[in-house]
Structures are given as C-alpha cells and as structure tokens.
Amino acid sequence: MSTLTCEEVGKLAGYSRGHSYQRFGSKEGMLVTVVERLCASRRKYLERRARVDASGIEKVLDFVDLHLGGVSNSLEMAAYFRVLAAPVLAMPKLNRAIDAARAETFEDISRVLRESRTGDRYESASESEGRVRIIYGLMTGMALQHAHIRREREFNLVRSDVQAFLRSALSRNSDGLPQQPAGRMDNNYHKYWTG
C-alpha cells in the first residue's frame, strides 16, 4: 500500500490519469474505500456460509475455518488479512479504517466465543481477551502464510490441524485445565512450512 499510486490504479483500471483523484480525492481516500469494501465483503462471505446449527466449540471452529477457507476461495478475503496486517502508514484516516476493521473482527471473535460457551465456568475479561487475540493472530498468520505458500493440499492439512489445536485449547478437562493437543500437528506444520 505504501508504494501504490492513484495514477497506477487508474491506468490498471483503464481510466484516465486523474479519475482516481476525482473519485477518491487522494490515495488515502482510495485506500479507506478499499478497506471498507473488504470489510463489507467479509461480512457477506460469512453470512452466506455460516452454519446456523453450529454450537459450542463447533461454532468457534466453524468461524475460524470459514475465514481460512475464504483465503483460498476469495481474493477479497485474502486481501482483507493482508490489509489488517499491513504496517502503519502516515495516513491517519487509513489507520483509523484498519483499526475499525480489526476491532470488528475482534468483536466477532468475542461474540462467537460468548455464544459458544458451555457450562457455568467463569472467564475473566483478560482471559477472554487473550483468547480473542490468540484466535485473531492464528487466523491472520495462517492467511498471510497462505499468500506466500500457495499449496492448497498442505494448507488444507494445516487447516485441520488448526481445528485440532483450537478444539484442544478451548476444551477443558474435569480439572478446568486445557486438554492436551491431539498429537499429529507437528508433521503437517513441518511439511507446510518447509515443503
């Protein structure tokens, strides 16, 4: 985003040199519009594909897998994660738009976690916030890795490992401690990251 120019976008889109400036006012205005469009596209993607019958941990797993599946199936979903992970630029309006997109994703994760909660176990605000950040980081990191390593078969194996990891992390044994991981994750991660 830092090297992008309105002239370049106009040329690629087949418009006159100044059309992007006329429409968006500036490069920052154009990028804010892109962020808003990507957020709207993400919402529509989730609405069309979310399982209404998912409950408990399955609701969280479905939410995360929808995002990771979207990275493979939708250029806009892949771009969404790239924008959220972009370095901060000297563009205050753009940074506010990216912060708002991030906050919306955090709120969605938080809502899904609340809706998935089973039992009467109390969870502190910091513990809940920590889970949201971990899930967000996991989704973003996997999405960015997919952008660099486009091997669908391996990515799908790792998606199933993400499911196993989250299931283990979100499940608790009778002592209230996290369950132990399923055990087969290391092999798939090694293949995915190293080829």
From TrEMBL:
Gene3D superfamilies: Tetracycline Repressor, domain 2 (1.10.357.10). SUPFAM superfamilies: Homeodomain-like. It comes from the Bacteria. This is TetR family transcriptional regulator. It comes from Hyphomonas jannaschiana VP2.
